[in-house]
Amino acid sequence: MNEQSDILVQKLEKHSDKETFNCFSHITLCALDIICETAMGKNIYAQSNSDSEYVKAVYRMSDIIHRRQKMPWFWSDLVYYVFGEGRKHNRNLKILHSFTESVSNNFVIRLDSLSSDSDTDHTVKKKRKAFLDMLLNATDEQGNCLSQENIREEVDTFMFEGHDTTAAAMNWAIHLLGSHPEEQRKVHKELDEVFGTSDRPVSMEDLKRLRYLECVIKESLRLFPSVPFFGRTFCEDCNINGFKVPKGANAIIIPYALHRDPRHFPDPEEFRPERFLPENSSKRHPFAFVPFSAGLRNCIGQRFALMEEKVILSKILRHFQVEAKQQRDELRLVGELILRPESGILIQLTKRTQKLMPEVPTLLQVLEDHPSSR
Ligand code: HEM
Question: Its domain of life (predicted)?
């Protein structure tokens, strides 16, 4: 994550100092590189090669699916393939599947070599095996392992769920901070306390200390939940507010609306990260804030997502001051699969005056490392 966000900062640096630009795809490509490398073990260099066929296919596919969702006459496969974009849909799917196929084939080969290897570096292998293990050792009720096809489907889900959601969330956070200088100042203050003038990578310890930034991320997800709605089927008869809901009925949950309930979030349109400080949120209803859904099928990547957002946002904000160049009503939200701004996020970046330096060891550290020099 640190390496990829360094590449992102270098790219953003080219736009800094008073040029208005759209940061949406820069952040998205960074998130894509991160998910491919961390979860899939394969670098696709999306940041340096935004022309990659896979990257282009991801964008085209979101658009194609959204268009079909909006046109009920294309919901029938027959009509869609004869009169609609069915063939375009299939062409794109082929590109996406051949990529994930190559990634998941890699998986099996790597797992084989890892499990037969008697190397002594146990902990590293254990960590690297975690996700592979989960997929390859997963069994159904009858004890059957996942087929190659099943694994590819899981890889597909991870690739989509794992980058588009975090990318949108980070873009919204950048817009909100860029429109709220006071809140941005508080983030900068926290970053200076944690990192000082050092340009060192973000550590797990740092992540725990970035409490205000975490509140900013949550408040951004409240106002702009990356997954604006999701569906569930009632598996038993229910009574909700005096209404009988029969088993089998479908429900659409809309976090975008739920998160604006003034009983839980007074002045709901206001951006107030302090709402998520422990003292202000511990008594809140557990389902008042559900950007990652809730219950059995909630998001399995939520801790990863928060970690990734903290790493990337802290890197950007350690280097730059952000100014948003759009008003809220100019953003024009599009609730495709993911909640996005129609024409991206326009910002201006100014390099922070505080000079960031590579970590320099303190005198005490030097003496501890070289006791003979005492
Ligand atoms: C800000 C970032 C994210 C948000 C807002 C988010 C939101 C959600 C939501 C609302 C669901 C439930 C969808 C439904 O029920 O239809 C979900 C499911 C899921 N998410 Fe995320 N997600 C995020 C990041 C991630 C990441 C980084 C990963 C992977 C590393 C991930 C993997 C998944 C998977 C695999 C599921 C399906 C779980 C299941 O069906 O049991 N998500 N996510």
Answer: Eukaryota
In the residue annotation, 74 being an active-site residue is answered as: no
CATH 1.10.630.10 fits 2-227+259-373, yes or no: yes
Whole-number Å distance, alpha carbon 159 to ligand 1 midpoint, is: 11
Cα 326 from Cα 124, distance rounded (Å): 45
Strand partners, 240: 243
Asked if pLDDT for residue 373 goes beyond 60, the answer is no
Pocket of ligand 1 (CB under 6 A): 39, 157-158, 161-162, 165-166, 169, 226-227, 230, 291-293, 297, 299-301, 304-305
pLDDT tens string 203-239: 999 999 999 999 999 999 999 999 999 999 999 999 9
How much distance in Å is there from the Cα of 162 to the middle of ligand 1? 7
Distance (Å, rounded) from C-alpha 34 to C-alpha 18?
28
Best mutation site among 161, 171, 337 for ligand 1 pocket (most ligand atoms within 8 Å of CB): 161
Question: What are 112-146's pLDDT values in tens digits?
Answer: 554 444 444 444 444 455 465 677 777 777 888 88
